[in-house]
Amino acid sequence: MAQKEQHQEETVYNPDGSKTVVFANDPQRTAVEYTTTVQYLDQDGTAVRPEQTYQTRVGHWLNLQAPAVAGYVIESGRMRRLQVRHDQTITFRYQQLHPTVEVRFEFLNEKGEPIHKAVVREEPLDSTLHITAPAIVDYDLTDETQRTVTVTAKMSPEVFHYHRHIIPLELNMSLVSSQMIEAINQFRAEKQLSQLTINMHLQTLSYVRADTQRKNHVLDDHEGLRPSLQVAGYKGQVAEGIDRSWLGTSEIQTAQQLLDRWRKDPTKYAQLIQPDYDEIGLTILADSDGRREWVAVEYGTKTK
What we know:
By secondary structure, this protein is an alpha+beta fold. The chain is 20% helix and 40% strand. The protein folds into three domains: 9-96, Immunoglobulin-like (Sandwich), CATH 2.60.40; 100-164, Sandwich (Immunoglobulin-like), CATH 2.60.40.4300; 173-300, CATH 3.40.33.10. The strands form six sheets. The protein has a four-stranded mixed beta sheet with strand order 4-3-8-6, with no helix packed on it. Strand 1 (9-13) and strand 2 (19-23) form a beta hairpin. Helix 1 crosses helix 4. Keywords: Repeat. InterPro entries: CAP_dom (IPR014044), CAP_sf (IPR035940), MucBP_dom (IPR009459).
């Protein structure tokens, strides 16, 4: 008895949704294939890598995996499993990552020592930060309280400087002023410049200016005080400087730290090494808080 011929059949799904049964031993059978196009697009629809195409027999399964792309994170699922029934386009969506930069904030005392734990943050490149310096117990902030910073590729640490409260001392401010003039002359000697002598007209003017600032608690050029030089009879050229700083722990230390401060200031440094100056008047007065000082200096050039 002849055996009935066995046929293997496969159901083919057509694009219009109809089905066709294809027998495996049918000599007329042709494999039906469809194209699957895989795209990799960012949030704006721009390709982040070239698309890929797959030719797959109808009814077969495709397992797709989205590749990692530098600078992007995958928004949609990384894995896709689908059965091929028609031509189709599959899209993996990526979100661009904004490059970030490590920004470091440091809080230092007058010696450059940290007095508060540094703050380290990752911030987007080219972003703008508005920073407010924290209050630190027993310290006064010597920089601006608020600062605006643009994040760049190579960021140096953002440093806030503080000065420790000191117990008010009964410093001899006349001695501090004398020590400062002596320190200035010693510095000029190192530069092979002439020594400055004290002129009483300049000294009187420096006292008036320093005292006015101390009473008003504000730095002011006080341009209106210049005519008093002519009234006093001073005939030379005058250059002026004012400052507010912190008292030290002794007369010598107070004068030295003020000189160090001036050496780092381009304008005040230029005055310190001006070869044309012959005379000086300088006054340093303590603020009522016992921690700060108000300074006024007058440099004179004698009429030749």
